[in-house]
Structure formats: structure tokens, C-alpha cells
Design goal:
Blueprint lengths: L3 H16 L12 H13 L1 H4 L8 H12 L3 H10 L10 H20 L12 H18 L6 E5 L5 E5 L4 E5 L2 H8 L9 E3 L2 H10 L5
Helix pairs in contact: 1-5, 1-6, 2-4, 2-5, 7-8
Length: 211
């Protein structure tokens, strides 16, 4: 059984430790301490994590996030390394792989690519295929609000339609880069965009990609 989620979790924790609590991230308004707290609340406090989607829980999420961001940074990193609590559904390997492989990959890149001296990771083909598989399943959800048609294309020609419409913009890149693009990290993702210039500008300015 693959363990991509576990690997990406540990890489994320190591990176957080290296850059410190106040390093920038690609998540607007968040430093590394905030991003660490977000990851922990997501898997340890489901009673609050729903506030990201449910307006009635937003206040609770804000309160719990504040509690975690106030904790010692070293404690936050250790909680990430330790993983979810004993009875969390994330303890099931299949659930962990499905829910956390992309989560930790994207957030690792949120930290890496916000640093001035970042360089691209060399990802093995098996991991790229795993990311592509997840992107195929979620592309239409991620692209549901974009103002143009959007096609995601691998260098080998495999494609997935993220949003039907016209004019169409085609984003070409490795699955890892397309995933970042689809999650709204379009300015940092290494993809080539083809299509009408106005449509590409509209896509960049819409802020509708991702969750």
C-alpha cells in the first residue's frame, strides 16, 4: 500500500521546522504558524473545521484556530508529525491517502514557493500519476466557479475538463503543477496557458479556482 500521505506529512512538518513560525505562505494572510494550526484543526477538531464551509460554524472555527495558533510552534509541528488522534477516520490508511496526500502536498508547496529561493521538487512518475488520478476525480469541483472553459492537460496529452464553457483556456503541465493551479495557486504553478488572452486574464483575476 502506498504511503504518499505519510511522506508528504513528514516533509511538511520538516519544512515548517526549518523555516520557522513566521515565514510567508501562498495562503493569503497566513504565516507558517497559521497554516500549521489549520492542518491540525482540520484533522483534530471536526467540530470546528466545518466552519470553512458552514457559516454557522465560522465563529467556532475562528476561536479554535486562535487557540492553536497561540500554542508553542514546536508543539504544533509535533502534532502534525504525530498525526490524527486515535479514533479519527484519518487513522484509516485508505482515508488518509485519499484525504491527505493532496492536502499535504499543496500545503508543502504553499510554504516552499513563498520563499524567495525556492526550486521545484523532482517528483517520481508514480506520485505524479497518483496526483493526476486525484485531479481527474476533483477537477470539476475545483473548477466549478471559473468564468471560462478550462481544460487541464498533461505533457503526454491526457486531459480532463475542469469547466465547460467558451472561450476555453487550456493549462498544460505536470500533474503536480496542474493540481496547484486548480487549487488556486495559479501564479506559482508552472503551467502553460493557451487560449484567448482576455479569457486567461479573467481566469487569473477570478480567484474562483480551488476551495
Amino acid at each position: 500500500m502506498s504511503t504518499f500521505a505519510k511522506r508528504e506529512r513528514l516533509l511538511f512538518a520538516d519544512l515548517l521546522e526549518t523555516v520557522g513560525p513566521d515565514a510567508p505562505t501562498l495562503c493569503e494572510g497566513w504565516r507558517t504558524r497559521d497554516l500549521a494550526a489549520h492542518v491540525i484543526v482540520r484533522e483534530r477538531r471536526p467540530d470546528a473545521a466545518g466552519g470553512a464551509l458552514i457559516k454557522q460554524l465560522a465563529g467556532r472555527l475562528e476561536k479554535v484556530m486562535a487557540e492553536y495558533t497561540a500554542k508553542p510552534y514546536e508543539e504544533l509541528i509535533q502534532l502534525i508529525r504525530t498525526g490524527p488522534p486515535r479514533f479519527s477516520p484519518f487513522q484509516v490508511k485508505q482515508v488518509d491517502e485519499a484525504a491527505n496526500t493532496v492536502e499535504f502536498y499543496v500545503h508543502t508547496e504553499d510554504v516552499r514557493r513563498a520563499q524567495p529561493d525556492w526550486s521545484a521538487r523532482e517528483l517520481d512518475p508514480v506520485f505524479q500519476d497518483a496526483l493526476w488520478s486525484r485531479l481527474e476525480r476533483t477537477a470539476r469541483l475545483l473548477g466549478r466557479g471559473v468564468p471560462t472553459g478550462l481544460v487541464l492537460r498533461r505533457p503526454d496529452g491526457q486531459t480532463v475538463v475542469a469547466h465547460k464553457g467558451a472561450p476555453v483556456v487550456t493549462a498544460t503541465g505536470e500533474p503536480s503543477e496542474l493540481l496547484l493551479f486548480a487549487f488556486g495557486r495559479d501564479r506559482a504553478a508552472r503551467v502553460e496557458l493557451a487560449g484567448d488572452a482576455d479569457a486567461i486574464d479573467k481566469l487569473h483575476s477570478s480567484k474562483q479556482l480551488g476551495f
